[in-house]
Amino acid sequence: MIRPRAFAGLALCAFLLGATWPVLAALPSVPARVVAGDAFAITQGSGALSINVSLASNLSARNWTVTVSPEILGLSVLQGDSVVVRGVDHDAFHRLENTSLVSGSMGGSQFGLAGEALATRFGLATGDTVTIVGAFVPRIAFVRITGVFRAESVANDELLVDFSMARFLTGLGPLNYHSIRVTTKDPAEMLRFLDGFGSSVHVSGPGIVPTDIHSDPPNDERLANAILRTGVGGAPRDYLATALGEATTSVRVVAYGIAILIGVLVGFGVHATQARAFADRAPAVGVLRAVGASNGWLRRRLLLESFPFAVLAGLLGAAIGFFTGIVLLRGLDLIVFGHQVPISFDLVTSALIVLVLVGISMASAVVLLRGALRRRPTESIREAPATEPPQSLEAILRG
Amino acid sequence: MTAWAIAFACMVLVGALTLADGLANGVGSVADRIGSGPAAYIRGRELLASEIDANVLSGIPGDFLALRAHPGILEINATSIPVIVVAVVNYHAGTGTDPYPIGARDVSLDAGLREEIEEQIEAPLANVVALDLFGLRLTNLPVVPPPPTRSPLFPEDWAWVRADLLAAMDPVHGGAVQAIVTDLPLDPPTVGRLGLTRLDTLGAVGFLRAGVAEIQTPLRLLALLIGFVIALLVYAAMSLEVHARSREIAALRTIGASPTTIAAVYEAQAVLITLAGAILGTALGILLSHAVVDFAPLFGLPNLVILALPIDAIGLTLAVALLAAAFAGLVPSRRAAVLVRTKEALPT
Predict the structure, then answer these.
(1) Which of A200, B41, B94, B179 could share a disulfide with B58, CB 3.0–4.6 Å?
(2) What is the mean pLDDT of residues A24-46?
(3) Do residues B251 and B290 lie in contact, with contact meaning Cβ atoms separated by under 8 Å?
């Protein structure tokens, strides 16, 4: 009962969702990827300071660990733009991230290694010297780029420095780190070890529920409230975990909010398209009712006719939108908090797009039919074509 | 229907900008609370490439440090080491003093740099060094002890010289100052007059602010896209309108309306439809963005987003919408004005 020409309108709506929702869905993952990546991240808990040289060396000595990478995270600015400066043991880091050298050298006690994407973005090359400011304490320092590396992770957008420089920039004590990232064959054994070691830590990573060991769980509101109330001195010890939670939820609210707004626009678009297409078929409803079709039969018939269109339009539009989004984003270089937003095919988001489109289409069809059923069959049957206002979305779709 | 379509498009733009502004406000409130420590003022975006005319420094009110910094090569004990060569002049009430080192050709190697060199050469430091800077090479420069005092802002791996030495080596690049470092912000007129940019020495603050600014870029592109959509909607609607009312247009022409009058009527209609849609969309966008932020904590998403009246977003949306409508309405309006000449519209 809804004509096939509505297909183009539905596909256009799905295209809009396909081009925007995967990007919006990827945004909130950026902060968590910066801290953990694809490894297990052990960060400071609310108890005694635990992320230190002792814990790192004890973890390294266990046979169930594959790689242990202690790290210091510095949020800094390079040439006016956000950049994460990560203090690392370069051997451990490169094993963990499986990086490859593009130019320069990886070694040395003092180093500044730029990820390839970062180097490209800022026009950096081996031998250049750049200004970096302190992360959590006021500082001015200069880092000489000793090499450029390539990584498949967020590190490709980061600047790696030695611990001495990282401690200068962050004000962290000589034996402490911000996080220890671990790859292990036995996550359960790692958690047991941390418990037995008495560390106050938060642990997160692939395949495990975020765990708090000898620590209160991170409270999403604590850091901002504490800082707003008392200043930096009021920040809890596990400020990294709480800041991560706040950053993630805040970005999520904005991203989901924009997604909802686009969803509303798409909902209107789908309904307007179907309304125009259905208006021409109202006489058919009248004829069917006149020859004895029940309301239930009409409803089922309409849904059965609309469903394949909606599914097909959703799949096609979402796929084209998704690939257009990827092409556009490559050209636009979408950077959030110093990192390129990774857009990859996400089955859940894609399925959600199709589901939303089909849902809106079905709901719209039911609403339209209900309106047609309110009229007497003889009122629906007419010779003249439906007179919809000319300023409909369908007008656009028909050129 | 066109007004509704424009309203929903404007709703997306206003809502998205409102939410992004809200995130910026929230992050900004935390960043302001953290404070930003001493400020460095530079020209351009990179301190090492900044060049501030040293002659204007005496006219800047207040106390500050004038920092000169250049990457160079130090040759000591027959080993070449890349270093940062710096000179600092303290300014107080318009008068500059160059506190350390004392000798015109002295090179003071700071404690961290000394350790690094000693580790590398595995021998006591020589008393003289050679310095490659600005493409020149100075030899037999006396090595003196580290500076007795140093701002906690600076690391301990720099080589310190007098500002005069740098100016003598290269009056243009060596004479210029790279940064003005001050505990209190410079007054805005001075900053504007000298074309300076503030470099927050506390990176987390700058990181958060720049991070939020990064989100604004795709939203500006969204504004362009919305403008295009509105233009398309208006063009299609007005084209159909002109087509549907061709007889009325012909009648108007018959009773003496000029082509300009008819074009103006349709152009005004396009702008009015768009204005109505944009106002409705703006209200919807603000309402929905508030609903999203206010209800988010109920769904386990407490957040830092602080919404305010989005004056800029409203202005941008209205400007984009009206501009798009004005442009998109031109062709149909012109078509309406010349329609009667084609005689297509004459009553039969």
Answers:
(1) B94
(2) 79
(3) no
